[in-house]
Amino acid sequence: xxxEQLFSAxxxxxxxxxxxxxxxxxxxxxxxxxxxxxxxxxxxxxxxRALRTHxxxxxxxxxxxxxxxxxxxxxxxxxRDQKMDITRDNIMITSGSMPILGxxxxxxxxxxDTVIVEAPTFLGxxxxxxxxGAKVIGIDLDANGxxxxxxxxxxxxxxAQNITPKFIYVIxxxxxxxxxxxxxxxxxxxxxxxxxxxxxxxxxxAYYDLRFRNQSLPTMYSLAGNTGVVYMGTFSKxxxxxxxxxxxxxxxxxxxxxxxxxxxxxxxxxxHIAEEFCKEDGLVNNIAKVRAIYAQRCEQMQDALxxxxxxxxxxxxxxxxxxVWLTAPEHVNIADAVTKARARGVDFQIGVPFFADGRGxxxxxxxxxxxxxxQMARGIQIIxxxxxxxx
Length: 391
Known about the structure:
By secondary structure, the protein is of the alpha/beta class. It has helices at residues 40-54, 68-80, 98-108, 123-131, 148-160, 184-196, 220-223, 252-261, 268-278, 282-308, 334-343, 376-390, and strands at 26-27, 91-94, 114-119, 135-142, 145-146, 167-170, 200-204, 229-234, 246-249, 314-315, 323-327, 346-347, 349-350, 363-367.
């Protein structure tokens, strides 16, 4: 059957994603957790406790929030760690954080509407927004995040055309893909511009708990006075991506509306296990463990980059998260270096998919979260040699 004749406009432009690490000995491509950060035994024990303590509830259908007691634990965690003044009415638990992007587009974006993102930004977010039919405008980054003059100019230009962007998507901590952190003053300025131009902010804070240098910064949600910002987070980096647990925080009325639009329930099985895992400082201790591991991995990558990378190539030195952003001279096509590195068994990600407008041919994202400790230097050496050959 010719299915393509029935495809939607979105379906006709879908590209098959390349699987991470296929046929490559080492992959710096995707932000997978270090296997040592996945608490197999603790999750196994938590699952047994959940089934013995809660009977059939973890195996039964559940409500939109999954396990309400887990929601209370999450509220406590966000109050303690992120210093957020919230109640259960302010929170929605989802199957990972990606559904929140979809819900935001369902709730706010019609085909042809405008959204504003960082340039570069998380490639998955760009895909979701474009699939929703949004016009995605990227604002360049400097060392402190979104360039304010460029953001204000874009907002003013849109206003002159009677266009209000539906939201501004920001990753303020250890940004994916650059690893950059937006300081408090810049966060406040972005919030002020959003309010002045009557739009909202979608704050993606997936890496908040993975800070291994300097002090934690207040969320944009808190800085905005708990209004005008939707905050999203995930357990994928601090517990397990396989658990598929994420959350959105916002004003109670907005969260209620988003929850009503949410057509899938959040797994009772996962949320009951997570409830048991979080008891007796289980989550607190796991976060401390993974921070130490990623701090060591990041330092190891920085050392290898300093030793092997050509002097003309620059890179970021993040205070947390999973990623380092690499920038070669403008004439260098990193895609050619990727091809050369793959021929030697090493994979990494060119920067182009992280830009809404297809820029970034001379950039790359390197993930330090997954490559084995004893292979980091060798992998970076191969990437550096491949870039040097292209240069």
